[in-house]
Amino acid sequence: MSNQKKGKSDFLVQGSILAAASLISRIIGLIYRIPMTNTIGNAGNSYYSSAYEIYNILLLISAYSLPTAVSKLVSVRIARGQRKNAYRIVKGALLLACCTGLAASLILYFGAEALTELFRSPLSIYALKVLAPTVFVVAVLGVLRGFFQGLGTMMPSAFSQILEQIVNAVVSVVAAILLYGYGARIGAVLGDAEKYGSAYGAAGGTLGTNLGALAALLFIGLLFLGYKRVFRSRMARDVSDKTESYGTIIKILLLTIIPVLLSTTIYNISAIIDLGIYKNVAVAQGYDIDLLDDWWGIFTGKYKTIINIPIAIASAMATSCVPNLTAAYASRKKKAVRHQINVSIRFIMVIAFPCMVGVAVLASPILQLLYHDSSETSAKILCYGSIAILFYTLSTLSNGLLQGINRLREPVKNAAIALVLHIACLLVLMYGLDLNIYAVVYSNAFFSFCMCVLNAHSLKKYSGYRQEKLKTFVIPCFSSAVMGVAVYYSYHLLQNWLQRNAISTVAAIAAGILVYAVMMLLLRGLGEEEIRKFPKGAALVRGLKRLHLLR
User: Fold this and answer.
1) Dihedral sign from CA coordinates of 524, 527, 533, 539
2) How far apart are CA 478 and CA 471, in angstroms?
3) What is the pLDDT of residues 500-531, one digit of tens each?
4) 51 phi/psi in degrees, rounded to 5
5) Which long-range contacts (CB under 8 A, 24 or more apart) does 517-524 make?
6) With a cut of 50, which residues of the chain have pLDDT below it?
7) CB 66 within 8 A of CB 146
8) 89, 73 in Cβ contact below 8 A?
9) Which of 70, 230, 403, 483 is the most exposed place for a label (fewest CB within 10 A)?
10) H helix runs in 285-373, sequence order
11) Residue ranges of domains in the chain
12) 443, 388 Cβ separation under 8 angstroms
């Protein structure tokens, strides 16, 4: 009985585990990108991100949807008591991952020159070639992560994610420094030491991605081998008379993967489309390519790194929702389905609103603190683009919710519509208003906004879910606005007094967290039952009651 309860542990707790791991990983990513950016510069960030966007498309096509598909299929078979078929799903998925991952890696390596020329970033070729083997590693890694997620535990994925990012961080910084110097020496002979130093330094950054994924695969692979003996003993008690053939399994995997693949590809392809349109249109408008690389490096290396921290929580929550939501939906437990959707969205909004406001208010101080960057362009990009935090967190989560209720085509359709509108918006802003990099910032926010609206309509249509608005949107929004005022004045008062940006920024963030938490509690935006579901929730409740902030 206790095992059953453990297997059916609250999805919010599991989501919190994976969300915490994703948040830690993003923070590590943010920290290591600081010395790496300071080494390779904005131009190096541009080469790094251009290579990464190209790599990401091949990764999406070959491997990205495997964890969700394996998690979903394993979860269903475990719920039915078909452990043998669940294990066969894993073996079939591993075979598929090896084939698609190897093919994608070969395409990336041997097609690197043509791909980087297409996106007007020829010096990204070194980084792209280093990234090529990573696709194969990540494909296999994704299957094993999906298996454990399908069993209802996020711990292996969480630990492997943190390990991956730690190795990534160490190797990326060290390799970037070493290869920057090597590239600079080559560039000195070729007549441009800075460019080649940045290009080779970017390749060092991608080496960290490669070895980080390999370390995570070794960790979770050993865990899988150790658990396999336990799982086989449980398979021996499997009395189901239906054994799925590997041909059937591959077919089921493909039928499950393709809708998710189309959705995630369309959803994420906007980044590489932005790169292609931005570079080619701006060059046609007469902008200097070095200036474009500098702006693109700010957008991808600084702006995206910062806003991706809260978005990571939504991604983790979406991943954890799928198996549990699928099980509730398959059992026709409509009330449970709506409850889980409601709790997920509220959880995300409680985080997204203050993150958005905090980043907007402290855009310049944060950039100065992290990157010693006081330029007006960088601050404007981060401030104006902060609205995307709200829309991307909600749209990322709602994609996972729709997949969880077996409406796999809806995110595909919605993403396709949003992508067309996004491209139209980008072209108008670039051609019509000549906004350059700001056109990319605004059109990205517009894309995620369209996804939010379309996904909300689909959730209401297929689950009957009606979003509660006061506690989900109004109270977090108002609390964040009050927090924003407190953060603004606390920062400027401290900065005028101390003239120390680091101290003023950290103190303003701490004040903002405190003000936001108090406002949420005073306005009843969070209740005791919800706080208890957070990590260390019981201790939080006791402390808040002592302070008379919770009744």
Assistant:
1) positive
2) 10
3) 899 999 999 999 999 998 898 888 777 666 66
4) -60, -40
5) 518/549, 519/478, 519/479, 519/482, 519/483, 520/350, 520/475, 520/476, 520/479, 521/549, 521/550, 522/549, 523/475, 523/478, 523/479, 524/471, 524/475
6) 1-9
7) yes
8) yes
9) 230
10) 289-298, 304-330, 334-361, 363-371
11) 9-467, 468-551
12) no
Tokens 């970033």 correspond to what residue?
121
Q: What is the pLDDT of residue 383?
A: 94
Question: DSSP readout, 109-147?
Answer: HHTHHHHHHHTT-GGGHHHHHHHTTHHHHHHHHHHHHHH
Q: What tokens were used for 175?
A: 């390799």
pLDDT value, residue 454: 93
pLDDT tens digits, one per residue of 404-417 = 777 777 888 888 89
C-alpha of 197 from chain center = 29
d(CA 12, CA 350): 14
Q: In this predicted model, what pLDDT tens digit does every residue of 414-464 receive, in sequence order?
A: 888 999 999 999 999 988 888 889 999 999 999 989 999 999 898 888 877
Q: How does DSSP assign 483-530, residue by residue?
A: HHHHHHHHHHHHHHHH--HHHHHHHHHHHHHHHHHHHHHHTTSS-HHH
Exposure on the CB side of residue 325, measured as CA atoms within 13 A:
31
Residue 5: predicted pLDDT: 43
Enter the tokens of residue 148: 């454990």
Beta-carbon contacts of 2 under 8 Å, excluding residues fewer than 6 positions away, are none
Q: What is the pLDDT of residue 323?
A: 62
CA gap 273, 288 in Å, rounded: 20
Q: Which of 444, 317, 347 is nearest to 392 (CA)?
A: 444
**How confident is the model at residue 3, as a pLDDT?**
45
Nearest to 410 by CA among 255, 260, 252: 260
**375 DSSP assignment:** -
Distance CA 388, CA 483 (A): 19
- Residues belonging to the chain: 551
Distance, CA of 517 to chain centre: 25
Beta-carbon count within 10 A of 530 CB: 16
Q: Smallest Cα–Cα separation from 194: which of 43, 49, 297, 299?
A: 43
What does the alpha-carbon distance between residue 245 and residue 250 come to, in Å, rounded to a whole number?
9
* Closest CA relative to residue 292, chosen from 308, 304, 275, 307: 275
Q: How far apart are alpha carbons 525 and 143 in whole angstroms? A: 38
Q: What's the CA gap between 309 and 19, in Å, rounded?
A: 10
Do residues 302 and 373 make contact, with C-beta atoms less than 8 angstroms apart? yes
Distance CA 198, CA 43 (A): 7
